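Hi R.,

As promised on Friday, here is the backbone we talked about, encoded as structure tokens. Could you run it through your design pipeline when you get a chance and send me back a sequence?
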């Protein structure tokens, strides 16, 4: 039997007596999803695009799913916060916006807190999320399965799956979903690392560009006034404070002004 947090006070529907053909079909779908996430190559693709692919694979790999989403969290602050998420359908986007932004409760929030799969078979009557469940039930969605994505002890995010029928997810779905979530977490984690590295590289490139223009501005001030580099830098800082703009912006203006003057003299 799969280990997960079920809806309190609700007896799950009996597991369907799946034929060997149906079980084989479910295994084929699971392996197709696993091959999909294993084959993801981030390259120059955005993190959100990778998440979208994982959500599509999850919807195929887990039986009974009508829509799925993949959420990544940011652990850099005092408490975890949602960094990004991608979905397979608009109704999943609406549901996730409700739980992340509006009411801040729901199966995904719970599964990331407990780090355990979380199941609900009747969201409208689920006492764990009194503000979330009723709103989702009015959308015509009644079942949810949320799976934490873990890499070792590190929580990367969660996979959210939803179904319009009641009691759509039992032991079978949780077992297959858990098998899918582990390698999916590795793919998402690697995509995040690459995304962070690319972002850091862009920041460093911008910083180098800013430093270069600041050095040029210092050289212009020195050439005009004959002062040393330290005094020229202090003057640039005072100009930045007086105009209440960033230092590199002041430097860019000074360099652009010098270029215009040089071109004007050349025309003359």
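Update: got your reply. Pasting your designed sequence below so it's all in one thread:
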């Amino acid at each position: 039997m799969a280990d997960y947090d079920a809806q309190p006070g609700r007896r799950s529907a009996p597991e369907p007596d799946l034929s060997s053909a149906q079980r084989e079909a479910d295994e084929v779908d699971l392996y197709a999803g696993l091959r999909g996430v294993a084959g993801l190559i981030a390259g120059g693709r955005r993190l959100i695009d990778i998440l979208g692919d994982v959500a599509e694979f999850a919807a195929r790999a887990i039986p009974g799913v009508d829509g799925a989403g993949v959420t990544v969290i940011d652990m850099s602050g005092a408490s975890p916060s949602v960094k990004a998420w991608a979905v397979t359908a608009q109704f999943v986007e609406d549901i996730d916006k409700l739980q992340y932004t509006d009411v801040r409760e729901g199966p995904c929030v719970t599964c990331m807190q407990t780090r355990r799969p979380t199941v609900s078979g009747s969201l409208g009557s689920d006492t764990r999320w009194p503000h979330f469940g009723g709103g989702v039930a009015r959308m015509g969605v009644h079942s949810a399965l949320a799976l934490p994505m873990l890499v070792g002890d590190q929580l990367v995010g969660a996979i959210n799956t939803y179904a319009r029928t009641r009691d759509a997810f039992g032991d079978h779905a949780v077992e297959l979903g858990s098998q899918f979530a582990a390698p999916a977490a590795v793919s998402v984690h690697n995509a995040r690392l690459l995304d962070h590295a690319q972002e850091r590289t862009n920041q460093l490139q911008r910083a180098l560009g800013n430093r270069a223009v600041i050095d040029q501005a210092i050289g212009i001030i020195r050439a005009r006034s004959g002062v040393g580099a330290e005094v020229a830098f202090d003057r640039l800082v005072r100009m930045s404070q007086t105009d209440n703009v960033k230092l590199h912006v002041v430097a860019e203006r000074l360099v652009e002004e010098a270029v215009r003057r040089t071109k004007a003299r050349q025309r003359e």
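One thing I noticed while checking it: Residues 171-225 form the longest helix (55 residues).

Thanks again,
M.
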